[in-house]
Amino acid sequence: MNGKLINGTDEAHHKFIAQPKTVSILGVAFSGGQAKGGVENGPQTLAEFGLHQQLRDLDWNVTVDARCQDLTHLQPLSDPDIGKLKKPRYVSAVCEYLANVVEEHAKRGELVLTIGGDHSLAMGTLGGTTRAHPDLCVIWVDAHADINTPLTTDSGNLHGCPLAFLLGLEGTDLPEFSWLSPCLTPDRLVYIGLRDVDQGEKRILKQLGIKAFSMTEVDRYGIGQVVEMALDHVNPNRDRPIHLSYDVDGLDPSVAPATGTPVRGGLTFREGHYICERLHETGLLCAMDVMEVNPALAHGDIHQLTQTVAVGCSLVRSALGETLL
Ligand SMILES: NC(=[NH2+])NCCC[C@H](N)C(=O)O
Ligand SMILES: [Mn+2]
Ligand SMILES: [Mn+2]
């Protein structure tokens, strides 16, 4: 199917990744898109668990870009709410910086792996990858739709809003976010795993005709068919680069407990990994985000912590070519 098997590594031909295949790892210690502390330590915890070496063991050339490790200097002295939005200038500044770093790596033909941090960072990752790959499509794995606009958000947390900004929806045209021009279209976005979508978000999804496979569809069709249908929708000719934005709360809390907004009834361990395995097989993956791992929310339970961190690492390995045989 995809060439020869070396040490269990399926050598897919990467269509948008230059040889030797290189992954740039950007750990972004940032929690400003939501209220719970600790999610800024996600990147370091995955690194300590051995993520970088695990990817070298899969025959990737690994570049670690430390520029986003500490972005606290970007926090403005004063950052009053804009409408309901919390920390808008800080989130914007961090994402603007991240977008430039991501763009640089993506334009070199590297697979850009961003470890969060909260999901507001997707404005930075997708802001950057879409500059390098203007026709890319997005597969968004999440319990949540993260498509609230400044007008529909209830919490005011920007990790619930990144897609509204990327799509340029009503109310996102704020001077504080002027660096981010709409770079995504509704037909190039598909969700898997949704189960906690706000009323206003449901209306947006309907209005824009955005394809979403909630847990109901995962139950009905099985994850295998869901991923094919998702690909058929956003990538019918299998010729578009794929950006996988993975919120670990897409997984069931029994699989990934250490996260800020867990919702029961999520993807199983295998369903979660299957998505990554299948996307690797396409040879089209050009970027991946692993977001919302919050070590502090393991509440000192070492099992909950290692479980969540280990699953974050194994999702990446699956997306980068680890196979079971
Ligand atoms: N990336 C996340 N975990 N997002 C959760 C968002 C929850 C809720 N919809 C909100 O807008 O606040
Ligand atoms: Mn979520
Ligand atoms: Mn999310």
CATH topology name: Arginase, Chain A
Rough shape?
Answer: globular
- Compounds present? arginine, manganese (II) ion
What is the percentage of strand-forming residues?
A: 5-15%
What profile does the largest beta sheet have?
8 strands, parallel
Mean pLDDT: 96
What is the N-to-C succession of helices and strands?
EEEHHEHEHEHEHEHEHEH
Estimate nothing, just give the exact number of structural domains. Answer: 1
Any idea what the CATH architecture is? Answer: 3-Layer(aba) Sandwich
Q: Report the span from N to C terminus.
A: 14 Å
CATH superfamily: Ureohydrolase domain
Structural class determined from secondary elements = alpha/beta
Number of DSSP strands?
A: 10
CATH domain class name: Alpha Beta
Low-pLDDT runs: 1-10
Fraction of residues in helix:
25-40%
Computed Rg? 18 Å
**H/I helix tally:** 9
Catalytic activity: L-arginine + H2O = urea + L-ornithine
GO biological process, one term: arginine metabolic process
EC number: 3.5.3.1
GO molecular function: arginase activity; manganese ion binding
Descriptive report:
The protein is α/β, with parallel strands linked by helices and 325 residues long. The protein has a single domain (5-319), classed as Arginase, Chain A (3-Layer(aba) Sandwich), CATH 3.40.800.10. Helices cover 34% and strands 15% of the residues. The chain contains nine helices and ten strands. The protein has helices at 42-48, 51-56, 88-107, 122-132, 162-167, 199-208, 215-234, 269-282, 302-319, and strands at residues 5-6, 9-10, 22-27, 61-65, 111-115, 137-141, 189-194, 211-214, 242-247, 285-291. The strands form two sheets. Strands 4-3-5-10-9-6-7-8 form an eight-stranded parallel β-sheet, sandwiched between helices. A two-stranded antiparallel sheet has the order 1-2. Helix 3 packs parallel to helix 4 (122-132) and helix 8 runs parallel beside helix 9 (302-319). The longest helix is centred in the N-terminal third of the chain and has 20 residues, at 88-107. The protein is globular. The protein starts with a strand and ends in a 6-residue tail after the last helix. The structure holds arginine and manganese (II) ion (2 copies). One manganese (II) ion (MN) binds at residues 119, 142, 144, 146, 247.
